[in-house]
C-alpha cells in the first residue's frame, strides 16, 4: 500500500474477480465482506477480503448441486 491507501474493489470488480453475477454477489456474498464508505454512487470492498473469499470458496455449492465449472 502506497501512501497508506487501501487496496479496494468496486462491486463490479469484485463480481469479475469472484466469477459471479451481480445478483449472486448481492444475495450471497456482499454480507460476508466489509463495505467501506461510498464515494459518489460506488460501493467499495477490501481487495484482501475478496481474494481470501475467492481462495476459500473454490467451488460454488448449491443445496442441490456441486457446481465445478
TrEMBL record:
The lineage of its organism: Bacteria, Pseudomonadati, Bacteroidota, Flavobacteriia, Flavobacteriales. It comes from the Bacteria. This is Excisionase family DNA binding protein.
